[in-house]
Fold each of these.
Amino acid sequence: MDSEDRSEPAPQAPCRILLVEDDPVLRERFARILSTWPEGRLVAACATLAEAQRALRAEPIDLLITDLRLPDGHGTQAIRLLRATRPQAEAMVISVLADDQTVISAIEAGATGYLLKDADSLELIEAIEALRAGSSPISPSIARVIVRKLGEAAPAPRQPEAPRLTPRETDILWGIAKGYTYSELAEKLGISRQTVPVHVRNIYRKLEASNRSEAVYEASRLGLICF
Amino acid sequence: MFLKRLPVQLALILLLAALASLPMWASLPLPDHALPIAGARCETGCVGTVELPARLDPSARRVGYRVEFTLEDVPARPVYLFVPLFTQRMVVTQNGREIADTGPRTLMTGVVAGQTTLLHLPADSLRAGRNTLDLALYRTGLMPGYLSEMYVGTSGQLTSHYLLRLFLLEHLRLMAVATQLLVALAVLVAWIYRPREVLFGWMLLLLVLSLLSYAGLLVQVGLAGERLPLYAFLLNAGVSGVLPIVALLVNRSAVPRWLRLGVVAAPAAGLLLPLGGIVGPPAAVLGFALPLMVASVLVTLAVAAWGVWKRRIDEAWLLFLSLLPMAMSTVYDALAVTGMIDGPVLLTVYYRQALTLGFVVILARRLGLSLRQLDRANANLALRLREQETELAQLHASEREKAAQRVRGEERQRLTADLHDGLSGHLASIIALAEREQAGAIESSAREALDDLRAVIYSLDIGDRELGAALGSFRERLQRQCRRLGVELEWSMAALPEISGVTPTHVLNVLRIMQEAVTNAVRHGPATRIVLRGQPGEGGQACLTVENDGAPFAPGMGFGLANMRRRAALLGGALRIEAREAGTRVVLCLPCRLPDSRPDGGGDRAPA
């Protein structure tokens, strides 16, 4: 269903956005905010997973913004589908609390950003632009959970694909978990403040990769990959 | 039990008595084909002729007999004289030539209590027709002398009869000594390992004392003087006291004091009689020690019988059975020694071993019973241990369940308190604001409510020494808030010392103090810039500072000051609010180790 020419957007082409949120009030609010962003184009605003999957198959999407708990499934399924069909596309989850479990499961599915449900228009647009610029947000509690997860995965022989972080990435993760700001961290590690969120993005991608087998299973279940 | 029925017991006693009395009425087989000599002519110490077996005159020191036998011709094969039973030392002369002296080659027991001999009659002094043998018997002990009928014959005719008597009269007696020594050793060991068992001690004493009756052997092997046997026998009278004590102990009865004294008094009196010159040793033995012994054995038998049939004690039955032959033999021997019956062979030497064996059985039975008891006790203990383990496991499980319930309860209580402090207050004001349709205020109040909910939820996961992470999350929320309000936020917590003892309740208290300080700065001192700093304080304290550039602090300005102070107190810290030239500074100093917080102690009921 995908063709090369359609999947590779021109640099100046508007960002094709798919919004998935079951709460109509919130959905409308986000849709309104997104429509004000000149660089983007809201392709569809879906209320269910099924709608989202249909939309994902119908048209190439550059950015998926999805709620996780949907009436007929889970937002991560939509994220996996997107990542399997368009690896270069970005996904972002909307969460009331942005709590660790929600965000981590989204990251493992392939999301690289998250958004609070009460985010105002400024925050939303900033978050999208940062994401498109290659930076990912991370909170200390999420960093802490990732650190813990990596610590647990290390001795287990059952996880050959445990993500291998570079020492720099590990330092950053530790620093954020301890509550340092990006600037404090950058100063401490002698790097530029702007590179910190880029490292975070790399960490997220490694987390997704370590979870790839599940993604592959999911993709094959959906009939997207033939063995 | 089968053995506890009276008819069975009586039958057993009769059988035992019959067996024990066997030597008294039965006799050993005699040589059939040898030449018997049934009469003798007195030479010295008596007059006329005697029929054999003969008892010797007790008053004579030496008795001489002449016996005659006739050979048809000089035999081709060696000829022997077989004397089945005699006591004392015997010197034999054949046709005027001394051919044997039994003295040097007979043990004391044999000399006094019967011996046998087989003498080779030298062929060169034997002649066809009549031959004479002179037998001289020298008296050595208390026992009356005895000479049985004799036989002349070949070794084939006599040897088996001789060897049988040799075994019974010499070897068996020595075996008895060995048995007694062995059992004495066993009892000694039992007593050493269980000294509180008095019975073992008395048994041992009994065995040792009765060994004294073998003192004659010591004399013979050159280890003691001539008179030792008599004195030893007098000392042996102590046995008379010990025997009833053993029986009483077996019956589990009290031992009278006088009886214990008797154990010392009896031999003492026995020794005093000859040593004090009152009577001679033989008279002391015959007139004192012997009657005492007989009386003691009979009394002991009676005590044992009382134990068996009145007190129903199993051990008494064992004692009774083993004592019965000894009692019979003691009476028999007493009669023999005093010459009242013709019995050269003293039976006590043999039958005392029945008592010794009785001791072994008692000892072994006790060992077996103890081991059985031990097994039972072990099994019982193992059972109880299992029961207790199960009980303990159940207790543990219920204890764990209770603990889990308690933790859940505490957590629920804490969460309730935390949500009550923040969220419910905000929701209440949202309702109030909604009634007045103040949309802007509703929005900010709802945002505060959501932020507070986030604070509560994030704090759940905060562990010890993770205040930094909690502050980091707080910073994120604060950044959004400040950006919405257009307030510049400066944040630097890298220098904050690490704090231990951190619990979710502590975290919430710290965050709420900080939030309150920021809210006040925004609300009352319209600030454009807020600085949050963490740095070390005095004495290892960790100080968190919130500065704003709004109005200087004036008393009575903030609404939540009382709450902030109370929260600071719960953290074991101090809150300082200072007016600056422009603006206000709130400093919260915390100890490097926070106090233990109870889940209900951390959240006061005041709205945040």
Note: Confidence is low (pLDDT under 50) at residues 1-10, 156-160 of chain A.
Amino acid sequence: MSLLDDIEPMKQSALAELKAATDQAALEQAKGAWIGPHGKFTAFMKQLGSLPKEDRPAAGKLINSAKAELEAVLAAQRDQLELQAALPLEPTDFTLPGRRRPVGKLHPLTQVTDEIVRAFRKIGFAVADGPEIEDDYHCFDSLNTPADHPARDTQDTFYLAEATNGGPTGNAAGAGPARRAAGGGLLRTHTSSVQIRVMESQPPPVRIIAPGRVYRRDNADATHNPTFHQIEGLYVDKNVTASDLKGTVEFVFKELMGSDVQVRFRPHYFSYTEPSFEIDFSSALVKKMGKDWLELAGCGMVHPQVFENVGWDPEIWTGWAFGFGIERIAMIRFGITDIRLFYENDLRFLNQF
Amino acid sequence: MKVTYNWLKAYVDFSWSPEELTDRLTMLGLEVEGVQKLGGEFAGIVVAQVLSRDKHPNADKLSVCRVNDGQTERQIVCGAQNFQAGDKVPLIVPGASLPLKPGEKDPFTIKIGKIRGVESQGMMCSGRELGLSEDHEGLLLLRADARVGQPFAEYLGRPAGDVVYDLEITPNRPDLNSVIGIAREIAAATGHLLRLPELPAATGSAPAAAPSATESSLAVDIREPEWCGRYVARIVLGVQIGPSPDWLRATLEKVGVRSINNVVDATNYVMLESGQPLHAFDYHLLAKGPGGKPTVVVRRAAAGENFATLDGQSRTLTSEMLLIADETKGIALAGVMGGQNTEIQNSTKDVLIESAWFQPQNIRRTSKQLGLRSESSYRFERGADIEMADWASRRCAQLILETAGGSLLPGVVDVCPRPFTPRSIELRHSKVTALLGAEVPVERQIQILSSLGLAEDPANRTPQAARFSVPSWRVDLKREVDLIEEVARLDGVDRIPSSTPRGAIGVNAFDGVYDQIGEARRVLAALGLFEAQGQTLISEEAARIAVDSARLILLANPLSADMNALRPSLLPGLLDSLQHNLRRRNEAVALFEIGRVFLQSAEGRREERRLALALTGPRHPTFWAGENRDAKMDIYDLKGSLDEFLDQFGVRGVSYLRRPQPGNLLLESAAIQLGGRLELGELGQLQPALARRYDLRDPVFVAELNLDQLIARRNAGHSFKALPQFPGIRRDLAMLVNEEVAHAMVLQSVKQAKPANLEAVELFDVFRGKNVPAGQKSVAYAFTYRHAERTLTDAEVNAAHEKLVAHLREHLPAVIRES
């Protein structure tokens, strides 16, 4: 039976032609020549009706399987050619630098401030704020540092010149985002002034931290800049003790500097705390710097006179306060040796953090 | 305050090593800022005599010697050849170390050991081994008269070892500006007794009918008893001015005080020892009153009075300054510095010793006004011990007699208008625990305070409290809490336990603002801008590029003209940072800063939080292919960053109003407004002249906004809007409009036309040039129409769109370009 015998050779020829196609066009042409509507194989199938009835099922089966095979090969060949066509002419050099979508970075002082704030917030502190232009009362007098007090020696203060346009220099009561400074005007020498601002504006208990800029009349060098940042903490409640202060400070510095940190308190003097301490810390990092202890912060129990100045009864309320320099922490953390780098904003510096 | 280990040992026993003393002082609150070891480098090296020298049994070049070190005989194996029995040599004993050589880290320590089978109990040294010479040919042979057993340092004439401590004395503790004061702390900490030098019994202190010899030779008239609380005068006759003895000179020099002569050194020594500043006058240079008796007058200076101080400067005084005078002239600036006219000279025979107490505030003011500080003013302005004045005077007289000879005139003139009355403070024992969180037993509290010289009054003792009187030297102890601090300090601050954080939850209005500022920072950094922190203090000149002089706040006492104004804007600082970066070839610079600015206004001084951006240089990071890769940033890079920031931060309804004229700072600029009224800030391109001043070659784009307002006006809330379920239909429109027609006007016109179902308008092309008449531009917009509940039909969209097109054509007006 010639029809059936022709199936296999015809399929072989079709396969050969499909496989020989080297591009899509040749493949489509081969497809059309064989299994398209006018293709040889399609025409061949149409002759099926001319076969005797009893031969038709076997022939149909053979033809269908041959057609399925051709179509499978066609699909495979199509995928293959498509893949080849999609490949770039030259292979991609994956070692070439890509097109960057740069992100910016936060200033290292911001990063360190945020970390300190995060640590304190874990234990219930809220962030507070105060003006940078201060008056003598909030910066000194209310903090138990009267004008002739020797402690004022250690803080050289920038005072503001009188307004040149004869306008008033202040005392418009400042609420809201744009605050107004009162009095003669100086740049706060420490964030401790925020202690007073907070105690004047809200009743006890108080649990706040206040990061911000402070100013000292020091010439700029590797360890001084007339502008720098401090963070102040204040906790006032009933039954607050120096032991709480120690526990809190230890917690925060372990959060900031790593769990291997040891913290030491040492008696010191600040006019607005009594007793007063300096806080030293020690860690593998400090040892590497060739030191046993590194001074980090000052703190103490709020002086009863300070409570009396804001009208709080020191027999009922006790509290502690601390303050430390943010630049100093950042310098230790990152191994930065010159404070002025923070204010130059060199991208090669900013990019490192 | 500098003090030495050995000097302290003279007043109190303690067994702490010099290193331990450093720690102990630190933990008592006397921070040790520096430690300097003096001498002592030849510790363990003595003069020894070789008794015999024999050949080593197992080595040709070695010898075995018997050596006398002054205490015992030792066997030493030695390789040197240049000595014989009888010679005196330096011997280092086992356990001691050779001096460090340059570059050496650890010293070489001598041990007892066997050399070729023979034990050697030390080492005889060469000059080189001792760091004294380069000679290593043999042992250093000492003079024949050297005393066997003498420490080698002493043989060389070098001082014995001592340790100088440089202590930071906190301003509340004037009593610690003295060796005795520090020794007193050590005595309290160790429980040992404080040993003061013994003084001869005071002469003439017993009341007598007749005036003492001193009273016959001098009168003291205190005219300002407020400022001078006590004046003690003694006179030593017949001194011989000359150099100080070695011990005195050495003690002063160790702590950094220059030796002058025996009398002046004695006053300085006693000041360092007791904390009481003293002054010595040449008695005969004081003007004699009637009867040949001078009077020391303690008075105000006359306004404008000139006075030559010891340092050779002539100073003009005010009536607020206290002067020590005789009846005709000033002789010392009280408590600050003596006068040239009565200075001790080589010819001085009779010496008047002044030991006084001056009011701290007055001394401080005088010293500050004159810019003149001295060891004396330093101590008086912190508060001297009024009860110490007489002791120090007697001690000084004793030392003068010892070092300069002469005889002390019997008696004293001691005028004391401000007699000392001790303060009495009650300590409630429960308060100690309440404040410290540490239990300190009552007996311990009392014992600590007593050891510091506070006298407890047993009559006032109850189980709950004790009452103490405060000694004259502790001017810092004023109330109960001060006593609690003393208990904490002496009991050991390290004994206060740490307790876990507890207590109230913090509340403050600013807390949320802090987070909003942080959010602004994070959005800007995500946009590819780097955060800068500029100086608050800038030059007035730089500040004036941003605002008028009238709005500037200047410093009254600036450090320099570079830093004499408070920044009225963040932009001058950002320009400095751009300049800094470009000078270092960081070409693409995109910075932002969030910070405060300070402005003078009619209502007073104002602080305001601002946010500023500055961009310059290439738009993209360096890339190796592609068009436009060298493109520079332009105003729309800045505007785009700002648009995205405002969107992310939740500030809507911002409009930009172009300013018709260039300003001082900006070439072309726009005001940024909210709701058409509130001015939030500005943006624009920096004036080229200014850019040149800052060495900025590429165009610079800057913006500054009021962050307080942004925070107040933002709507940070997010609410979900269902995603569209039905397809949108887009219609594009290109049209020609006049140049004056701004994008905002097109949007406004679209809004007025109120096309049905219009969802979005997007500008996708602005074109000038071919086929566009001069003075016009071609703008192309995509309009998207969508209905929330069904699919729109073409007919519906066409109807709405045609209405819109007609409106634009008529009202902009616009010529529609056929596509």
Note: The longest helix of chain A spans residues 56-86.
Amino acid sequence: MLLPGLVEALRLLASGDENTWSITALTLRVSLTATAIALVLGVPTGAAVALTRFPGRRVLLAGANTGMGLPPVVIGLFVTVLLWRSGPLGAFGLLYTPIAMIVAQAVIATPVVTALVAAAVQQVDPDFRAQMQAIGATRARALLALLGEARLPLLAAAMAAFGAVVSEVGAAQMVGGNLAGQTRVLTTAAVLATSRGQFALAIAFGLILLGIAFLVNLVLTLAQQR
Amino acid sequence: MIGCRDLRVHAGGRELLHVPELDVPAGSVLAVLGPNGAGKTTLLRALGLLGPHRITGDVLLDGHPATRAHLRIAAAAVLQRPILRRGTVAANVAGGLRFRGAPRAAARERAAPWLDRLGIAHLADRDARTLSGGEAQRTCLARALALDPRVLLLDEPFTGLDTTTRADLVADLAAALAGRPTATVLVTHDPEEAAALADDVAVLVAGQVRRHGPTSDVFDDPRDLGTARLLGFTNVVGTRAARPEHTRLGAAREFAVAGRLRRILTLGSAVRLDVDTCDGPLTCLYPDRDTLDAVPDIGAEVSVVLDRHKIVTAAPPVDRPARPPRARGRGEGRYSGVFGPPMR
């Protein structure tokens, strides 16, 4: 059954099937945007947790570590409740839109980035910033040098975050609703195809998903091992 | 020059350090000696305003209170562990110049002579993470010296190096600093490093400067036994102290100390004898084995003689403030109190 799936996937991509391409494009748009938001929020938070001392710091780190293993379904549920028409943010009418999916996936990925960045930064010598400042770096330059020093695990954090969101199905299904042409992504499309018994199509979506995950990680790995 | 007035460092509600006044003129080296935990590193970092603790009082640069921005331009520090960035040795040595805004090519050009002077030119293209401890330490020193700083702060830069590497590096650093207008503060626990490099010595104990003066004065007259021990006069009998290499086994006579030989250690061509006496353990170090007539058996009754010409006399360590030194000419009466009554 795998071989027909592979053939079907190649046929779908080669024939330029508009439906498949739009699902793939939406998957990339949602997951990459969510990963970018998670990086913007998670890198400074993780760095702050690693480098500074403030009340609640360890609780925050424990929260981030817990968040790494949080089931996407639970996050999907919370985001759905928040965005529900009668919910606190219902007035914005965001439920069942790609924005809702980006929000949910960013919530999934941010703890991953925060926890991994905190661990990455803590691995660098605690005197690193002081030594950089001691040879003329400003505080900001010293911090940038520190992040540069930790760039291997930082890029690993980006990969883990992207991997977590591109592969999740629960939150995308709940807050996106798997609406054809609007919020259908590769994972929810694969689930639907499987439930309809269209295994070849489901395998095709699965293979495309694997291909995307590999390509994104290949780019990040090449950047990391430069 | 660098200095400080009423410098205090606090951490966790505790005062770690208080130095009322300290000055290091341009072109001179101050060695800060002290036991572990005395606050040497804290003082060095406070002089560079390098945190992480709360600092009050003034750090003076050329007599004026300095800010972190002033020191960022004027000072360079080498911290205890060699901390290098990813990249080549050459890029690391140029790193400080890059931080100060030099273009890449210019920074490399200005750094290149320092690779030569610190003997790491052949490592220029090596990945800094593959260096040995001594090589990494040389790279850190070259990186700081390449900045041509007015103030150089060195925190035990020779720790953890083998004897030969250390001697080489001390010599290279002395040569690099000679004739430059750099004010250098060298934190160390090794009196030999201080003697080799420093014009002045400050002895720091429990966050306070207990003794400060020209190196020769401090070494000749440590004044208290705590300071004497730090300076290598580890054999203490009453108020007299001597170095192990100036302590010998001798015939029982006046001023000799009776004891029992506990251990004999052969250290290359040198021999070290540990003797337990009623004044505590004493160590005799014979740099050349042949100068030791006959090695007694372990457990033998022996008598130990401190070389009366190499002895210093010092008061027992006290917590009360030191009295002002007795006025006397340099050299005069240096050993006069040895066999006389205690100085106080």
Note: The domain at 2-224 of chain A is CATH 1.10.3720.10 (MetI-like fold).
Amino acid sequence: MKYIDEYRDAESSRGYAEAIHKLTTRPWQIMEVCGGQTHAIVKFGIDQLLPDLISLVHGPGCPVCVTALETIDRALEIAALPDVIFCSFGDMLRVPGSKDNLLSVKSKGHDVRIVYSPLDAVTMAESNPNKEVVFLAVGFETTAPANAMAVYQAHQRGVKNFSVLVSHVLVPPALEAIMNDRECSVQGFLAAGHVCTVMGYRAYVPIASRYRVPIVVTGFEPVDILQGVYMCVRQLEEGRYEVENQYTRSVRETGNSAAQEIVEKVFRVDDRSWRGIGEIPGSGFTLRTAYESLNAELRYPSQRSAVVEPAECISGSVLRGVAKPHECPAFGKNCTPEHPLGATMVSSEGACAAYYRYRGSELVDDPAPAV
Amino acid sequence: MNTCPVPLSEHKTIQMAHGGGGRLMRQLIDQIFVAGFDNEILDEQSDSAVLDLTSDRLAFTTDSYVVQPLFFPGADIGKLAVCGTANDLAMAGARPVYLSAGFILEEGLSVALLSDVVRSMRQQADTAGIRIVTGDTKVVDRGKGDGIFINTSGIGVMSSQTKPGPSAIREGDAILLSGDLGRHGIAVMTQRDGLTFESPVESDCDHLWPVVHALQEHGVTLHCLRDLTRGGLASALVEVAESARLRLHVSARAIPVRDDVRGACELLGLDPYYVANEGRMIVIVPQAEVEQALICMREQTISAQATCIGRIDGDGDGRVTIESEIGVKRILDMLSGEQLPRIC
């Protein structure tokens, strides 16, 4: 399959791995930002081809993992209201709130549906005029254009029974938060190729220079990731800290201007709370005033009080690249995909889920009994 | 091929009375089921079917079918209900001969659609030399079913004294796969979720008995057979490894997945190794018989792409390992639940 097979080629992968071995003289810690990259690394065993001197740590780029607990609880609350059809991307359904998840709300008889496109949720609202359709608009810059388009279309078409619960997050402020973290020892980043396909990579230039950290915009297949690591190590070894683009088949410096326009029209930048990390200034999108009538947070005031994460879960440290999943005492024991303590064990892009799925029985000595 | 026309009931949709035990139910049974399945055992309409069997060693299995949508590219719930149960018998090395069919119908279901499902079941049964000899019908209130639920139980005749299964697997055996993966799951999923592809992926739903029969006829030693339904190849391999307490090793590069299926999986964030199939199986045979087994399987249309994907290693830890496309070995495990499409 074109654009897949050539980037999963064993010979090219080995070629890049050998080149990285030759290049590396000192220990380096590199963070891949996106959860999709984390899964590819663990699934294909990319890290096992690298020299011991190079350590890959996993970043916060999993939208499901970083959606604030308060937002999940709010989603659960709204989904349980009468006459509401609650729509979400599939991944979000299993994410634990403080008590429940959307799948368990569905099993109690409430109408919770998976959609592939937020525009489908708008159409659903039009064909169910007696219901209120609420869409959980989460994700990074990647999903923002489609979500913005749904809001714009609903507004233009006067769809009154449609609203969105927005919890959008942005990558560049998160990278700054990681670099400002005293526990952080990340020396280079593989930036998320899909996010840069939409937004371009100009926003990363000041970060690279301010923190003296190389940033390589990288794709998601094994050869992409190995090439990204190679480019990052080369900069580190040469003492450079620039923004480079490995994912040239998809990413242009200025990104996708049509996508950026619709995002700019509908959303404005705001502070955002990240699950496991806390509030990061200017790290999220929220609806502009012109579209506030479609804001589910205003339409359905919350009845709930503040919530706290289970103390045992170290997903915050995992998302900041400070700990690896199997370093958590609960990993594979009190915390499994069947009974997750944190969102990183649930999502198909979560680092804990990747470690459990592809390496679980090797990493856990005394796993939880099967249920 | 069934050419017998199935006359429609005077009602165009199923009524509660169609399950009420009265005249309307009788009419439904006579016009749709007895006429549709048409064989002398069913024609007797006794409380039980009385069967003459050629062997005293039988295989017996049951399965229920609740697929949505009821019709999808390449198959429908009726074809699935016959092939699925027949394949479970075939996996025991048994020739499927008789099926029962229990229907739970939702009030308001189109009678014409029910006839189409029955016609499809008859056609699949005829293809495989199976007779549907007993059945049952219940009707549930509208909203309490999903159109049609079907349960089929099957009886198969064992032709040999040995039954293939995990306990017969030996170190060094080869793992053969009968064809490409994931078509059934993708065919259903893409219809269900309203995704459209330029050329829709068709379900691989089909009978596996002809392949098993051919292998038996050619004297291949069948250590284990497993069809790759829910949970796909990965779950089947893990189940076999755990039961046999042996390590199974496969190579990702040897496992065929068609480009359209791979494309759909990439788009939806699914792993084809976990996607359901309804006409695929793994066959575990002694290493010395691989060539003969593959020749024999490739002669059958349904397994024309049969290939060797791995082997049984000595380690007795009951795990499955896979060598990734880039040559690194990792664990292949079961999923904890249904695969859900990812966000981006």
Note: Chain B touches chain A at residues 193-195, 253, 259, 262-263, 266, 268-269, 319, 324-331, 333, 335-337, 339-344 (CB under 8 Å).
